[in-house]
Amino acid sequence: MIIGTLRTDLLIRESGSLKDRRRVVNSLKDRIRARFNVSVADVGDQSLCQRAVLVVAVVSNDGRFANEVLSKALRLITSEPRVEMLNQKMDYL
How far apart are CA 13 and CA 5, in angstroms? Predict the structure, then answer.
């Protein structure tokens, strides 16, 4: 069994409030979940209106599949015009 995680540190420049931040983050989380059938959580910087940390997790019996899903999720995040990726890290167990 392979557990893959993707951690992304995001900057939401146009967010002026926590409500704006939540709208962007929830939209992104919902799209990732719906498209890739993975778990997504907002795990950090929740009190800062322009920063977010998202973690995407996938469980598979095929390491290549897990890598492919996380890579596609990463591309979706980077294609979102409202966010800028500051840092990202993929891990596999």
Answer: 25
